[in-house]
Amino acid sequence: MKVNVSERIYWLGVNDRRKALFENLWPLPAGVSYNSYLIVDEKTALLDTVETGAGGGYVEWIERLLAEHGRQELDYLVVNHMEPDHSGEIGDIVRRWPQVRIVGNSKTFKIIEGYYGLSEHGVEVGDGDLLDLGHHKLQFVMTPWVHWPETMMTYDTTEHILFSGDAFGTFGTLDGAVFDDEIADFDAKYLGQMRRYYSNIVGKYSNMVQKALDRLRDVPVRTICPLHGPVWRSEPKRVIGLYDRWSRYEADAGVAIIYGSMYGNTAAMADRIARRCAEAGIRDITVRDASKTHLSYLIDDVWRCRGIVLGSCAYNAGLFPAVERLTAELLHMGVKEKVLGLFGSYSWNGGGVKNLRVFAEQIGWPLVAEPVELFGRPTPEKLLACNDLAHGMAEALAGAAKHE
Q1: What pTM does this model have?
Q2: Which of 7, 16, 5 shows the shortest CA–CA distance to 47?
């Protein structure tokens, strides 16, 4: 399908509603889109492709669109990102247009050779270099580790359009509405999907996102064309602001309570803490069972909320496995700017809370109260110990709000 982004710039996108897991890891309940773009000028340029086979005649679409302008040749293929969901059709493009010049940076071509065995056709560009298509002048902005080492962005200096690669993308298909101003309620349809995409796919590289945003801070951007999700033509500043906020680890004054429980004892503690948090004035509270909630949603909760409360029963003298996986991933990502509460229970030997303490020391989030650990069944009398944790969280969030 083709849609005009401007007079001679076209969106060529594919909606994938069949894939269950993005990168074979992250659930896609609302699917995902793959976006590419074609510029028809004195010279023609395709910016990125789509996943192999997802287009169902992708090359033919390009042929028809070129023919509508009385053209046959594709002069350039600009590769902003080499991940296969965007580079999957490179081989078919080169076979159809053998003279096409592939535009990328030095790291791009190493990956192209590894994936597709292509060592020719290359036009290597560096930061700030220009490609003259005629009316359109493309400038290249190197944005390494947003979120692969070769990632870059392409900026059309003529129409102030930014082709942003994976940055500013989101999970979710484009159901007829390609542009942000065609969507009735963006927040309801995409905001959570966009934050889950950011936190799981890009979040580890938040420091590099900040460097990329610094590069773009004084660049006039009228439209943002990402490789996933809507094209931003009415509110490009808003999506830039979201990435700025998330990459600074700025979060809502809410609490995510995430626990692992075998027989309901730790779950009962989670419910008591949640209730006491509500009584203490916290209005944004999410409670998750780590064994029934996919890791990607737990990470999204952590990104969204400033207050994090983790609970684990003792499992073989250690953490409940689903909680252990979450803590390992958070350490790997290096998530910052959170306040933390810890709780758990045990039946014959401890280990859950002990290992949560180790996690707290490693990640460096301040504890809002002394961790709570209960032995055996959580009777009403025992559950009183949870009150201090909830009150400490409320005070920590209130204190943070005063300093913002």
Answers
A1: 0.94
A2: 5
